[in-house]
Amino acid sequence: MDREKIVIIGSGLAGLALAEMFPDSILIEVKRQPGGLFSKDNCPVSGNIGSEMINKLLYGKKVEIETAAYRLDSEGVWVINRNGSKKINGKVILATGFRERTSVELGIYGYRPAGIFPFTAAWDLVNMGYLLGEKVVIYGYNHYSLSLASKLSKLCDKIYIVYSRESLVHSLDEALSLGVDLIQGRIKWVEGRDRISLVKTDSEEIKTDALIIAEFAPWNQLGAEFLAGNAGMILESPLKVVESSMLLAELLKTGGNMERIRGNVPVLPKFVSERFRKVMLGVGTGIRVTVGGHVIITEEPYQVVEIPPGKPIVEVA
């Protein structure tokens, strides 16, 4: 497997970590700058800072920027840039990151005024110096929303985070220390004729002039077989993003017949082989999980476990 050309779609933290493991790989990036979301992330997780890790991994890497992948087949991937379209043959790994969940998925109804931003758009605008609003509501509590809140706290009069699930790597106190108001619940309704003016949760109403959607889902827009980072599983820790990419790289280098992992627990990689059977679990600390018929209690977020032979099933116990 390591003799076959590796083509990595996405030059964020997961893609760069893979390129470190496959020095002869080709890195494709749709944006003008490589690095992804973590290139502007200065919010530490267990002492690790995403932007610092990006800078280290970017050193010496060649990235084909402003190049979009648009079709996969069994031999490789078709890409397009200002020079036209071409096909790159090789084993393709998708490392393009997550997508924001839609209003329909989240059960948000009402008006559709200006001032509602998907997280990635809000992230780019704030990092370019734009003010999104004076009273901002962020829907979702995770590493990415907390990192954005830390930037907005220097610009806005008031920040609210509405959440139904807590972060796997950050305590609620970390948001409170930024002066953020935390509201547990779900957003049900949005009002505003021209611009958003009111958000209704299942417990209260919040006057606001900006809403940022920070609830995420993995995104495999090309239907790739091999996924890295947030394209395969939502990962809040930059160190765990890198570690999960290393697991995938070891699986591909080791080779062997692949078995897809089944069950209701997110995992990376999505496969094991008879030669390499380690995966990372997408759950927090203290969760009872059945791994190949054996019950374990996780000791850390995104714990790495070994799948027993013949039982590639991972489920919440």
From TrEMBL:
It comes from the Archaea. InterPro entries: FAD/NAD-bd_sf (IPR036188), Metab_Enz_Cyan_OpOx_G3PDH (IPR051691). GO terms for molecular function: oxidoreductase activity. The keyword Disulfide bond does not apply. Gene3D superfamilies: FAD/NAD(P)-binding domain. Keywords: Oxidoreductase. PANTHER family: ANAEROBIC GLYCEROL-3-PHOSPHATE DEHYDROGENASE SUBUNIT B. This is NAD(P)/FAD-dependent oxidoreductase. The lineage of its organism: Archaea, Thermoproteota, Candidatus Korarchaeia, Candidatus Korarchaeia incertae sedis, Candidatus Methanodesulfokora.
